[in-house]
Amino acid sequence: MKTIANLLVALVALLHIGFMILEMFLWTTPYALNAFGTTLEQAQTTAVLAANQGLYNGFLAAGLIWGLVAKKESTAVKVFFLGCVIVAGIFGAVTAKPSILYVQALPAVLALFAVKLSPSA
């Protein structure tokens, strides 16, 4: 179970690295415009806000990676950062786009359950 838990935590970290790249560097590209349902004008207007949001996603990924490589308190670090991802996903689903619940929060919930079921994941 420890391996499954760590793979799920790594998946959530990779998702957040992807979100970071999308929001910080690709925000005005056709891919991001399509993914977020925005126009080029909207994306250009919100680019600074998206970059800031992307930076926070990078911090979440860094915390999850820290939990994967930490020798001490790794379970606590994973639980904390997965909790942050879940809260962010729920908030995003309520305030921005309902699909965020499935793309961001659900993988983190699955990872959190696996971590909690795993002896010292």
Quick rundown:
The protein is mainly α and 121 residues long. It has helices at residues 2-25, 30-36, 40-69, 74-95, 100-117.
Unreliable stretches: none
The rough form would be described as elongated
Largest sheet: none
Number of helices: 5
Instruction: Quote the beta fraction.
Output: under 5%
Kindly list the characteristics that best describe this protein.
121 residues, mainly alpha, 83% helix, elongated
Describe the structure.
The protein has one domain (2-117). The chain is built from five helices and no strands. It has helices at residues 2-25, 30-36, 40-69, 74-95, 100-117. The longest helix is centred in the middle third of the chain and has 30 residues, at 40-69. The mean pLDDT is 95.
Question: Which helices and strands appear, and what pairs or packs with what?
Answer:
Blueprint: H1 2-25, H2 30-36, H3 40-69, H4 74-95, H5 100-117
Helix pairs in contact: 1-3, 1-5, 3-4, 4-5
